[in-house]
Design goal:
alpha/beta; about 45% helix
Length: about 140
């Protein structure tokens, strides 16, 4: 049964933690606590504050937060796919987002290699029950 303080499934706004990057740099856990205290029930990570995934999962669980997404750098998600997907799984995060493509891979000649990398990452995420997307910044 859903607790009164929990939002209806699919009916909440997640705090994109990139917007809190200054506070996160000072004290990552305190920043998460401030988000929870402000009434957020979910977060979208943009880094993990240097915390190991199991420790971070414990923190968000204790704060009543759910990880709905995470911006994971291109090099991490394409180069360390299994480890990145495992981290997302430990966090209970169901959406992996590449927030940008490195400048040296934005040319027409790189398109096929980037698409192949996205296909590979997408397959690994799908196998783990995680959605995958690219956050286009319009380059």
């Amino acid at each position: 049964m859903q607790k009164e303080s929990e939002p209806n499934v699919g009916m909440f706004i997640a705090l994109q933690l990139y917007t809190m990057r200054r506070q996160a740099a000072d004290d990552f856990v305190a920043m998460l606590r401030a988000g929870a205290d402000a009434g957020y029930h979910a977060v979208e990570f943009a880094g993990y504050g240097g915390l190991p995934a199991p420790e971070l999962r414990s923190v968000i669980d204790d704060l009543g937060l759910r990880a709905v997404g995470a911006h994971v750098p291109y090099a991490t998600l394409t180069g360390e796919t299994a480890a990145a997907v495992e981290t997302l799984a430990v966090l209970g995060c169901d959406h992996a987002i590449i927030p940008g493509i490195p400048a040296d891979l934005r040319g027409d000649a790189d398109l096929a290699a980037v698409a192949e990398a996205f296909d590979r990452v997408g397959a690994a995420c799908r196998e783990a029950g995680i959605r995958f997307s690219y956050h286009n910044h319009g380059w």
